Amino acid sequence: MDTNAGDFFYGWDLLFKTIRAEVNKKSDVLIALVHFLLTKHYNFRCVGIGEDKILSEEDVGSELLPDNWNDDDTKYSLRYTHEKVLYLLIGHITEEDLLLNLLDINTKKVSNICIDPENLVAAVNGNISTLMPTASEIVDRFRKELLDPVFTGKSREVTTQTSIEPQRSNGADPLRIGEPRRGGSFMPGGYEPRPFGFPDIGRGDLDPLGRGGPGNLFSFPSRPGMPGNGMPLPRFDPFGPEPNIPNRGPNPDHMRPPNWDNDYYM
């Protein structure tokens, strides 16, 4: 889903209008975007600035950025709460990058992301498209690298893009070569069935993958009740003396050799 068309940034204009006079550098725009993502889509509430790790009952959360949130030229320190859990958003400004950390005070989980304000922010005044032409991609990075490793709760609208997977009809296997079997032998594409109902012997020799039965050899006859859907089983001669099985003829391997009665030394 395109974030601009899907109302993902609905409410950004109101937020940015309240801080427009305070924004004086490109990193301020990115901090405002993180704040917008946390407060609108993750239901966080900002409880002020600083790095105090104790959440008191007097801390009242707000969807607005607090006063003096960007007074420090090299660092940001914002405190947020979600369901009585305190989070710290810390930002450090270097010569070219902005390093952001999100810390869960209870679990001590921490995440980090390094971004380049000069390349991501085109202006410090204007609408969202003018400020950040790739705002949706920036939000995705914030979500995957900054929020997901720390925050495991639900959000109202986490994803900014939606992929539609093609539906498979009739359970067809995309890795299957040719048409699926419907009983009988496989028929390679491009060959017509035998006319007049003649048996389909030798069809397997035409398939380069060796499918389709015994080729020029007729199939072995099968007997009802055999395992494997009636397929014949290989001959097996048991080791050692055979058990006495009633109603069974002599074993060919046990028949006397020719002229046995005449030659006792054979």
UniProtKB/TrEMBL annotation:
Family membership: Belongs to the proteasome inhibitor PI31 family.
GO biological process, any: proteasome-mediated ubiquitin-dependent protein catabolic process
Keywords tagged on the record: Proteasome
Pfam families, alphabetized: PI31_Prot_N
Occurrences of domain PI31 proteasome regulator N-terminal (ranges): 21-156
UniProt-recorded Gene Ontology molecular function terms: endopeptidase inhibitor activity; proteasome binding
Keyword Transmembrane assigned: no
Biased composition (Polar residues): 158-170
Entry GO terms, CC: proteasome complex
Top-rank taxon: Eukaryota
Region of interest (Disordered), ranges: 157-266
Name this polypeptide is given: Proteasome inhibitor PI31 subunit
Alphabetized InterPro entries for the sequence: PI31-like (IPR045128), PI31_Prot_N (IPR021625)
UniProt keyword Cell membrane present: no
